[in-house]
Specification:
The longest helix is centred in the first third of the chain and has 30 residues. This protein is mainly alpha-helical. A hairpin with a 2-residue loop joins strand 1 and strand 2. The protein is built from eight helices and two strands; from the N terminus they run H-H-H-H-H-E-E-H-H-H. Helix 2 packs parallel to helix 7 and helix 7 crosses helix 8. It has a two-stranded antiparallel ribbon. The chain has one domain. It is 65% helix and 6% strand.
Length: 190
Amino acid sequence: MSLSSPNQMVWQYFQALRRLVVGLETTSNEVVMKQDAALSLMLAVTVVEALLNIFFRVVVGEPEFTQHKQRVLDDLKKRKSLDHKLKKWPRDILGQKLNLKAPTPKAFMALKERRNELMHFTSSHETLTLPGVEIQGMADTSALDNLTLSDAVSALEVAEDMVCELLRIRGIPEEQLPHALHMWTGRVPV
């Protein structure tokens, strides 16, 4: 067993995500750029879900939220979906609904959908017809092929903004957000 502070996993994931994004800024290899951009999208969604799991596990340890502890433990054990946690936990535990139509949550949900296109990729089984040749079973790989550096940068920004959104719902004052973001993600306040 290896024991750490609760934020350790989130810090590590954010550090890896930031390293990927910084590396993309210096690569000239288009294939590597698309691969690492795809990984950035996947990791950005993963880090937000990891934060949700850990953050709410910590919150229900606080005296005013202990009545929700078993519910969070049960949801974690049952591996409830990310959508379930985003829709239910802030509202039911903190008494604050996460408005999924607000800019940051909406951007995160769009990021999650792009991640899903990459993560749950299946062949569209297209047919390419050229003079004298027909190739069947082609896959539409636009979800990967259209990725850019700005997609990776945006994924990191959306993940950090989503953490701030959750911290706001928890009641962290705006002036303390940079320090709370540092505590949870390792991003040093500027």
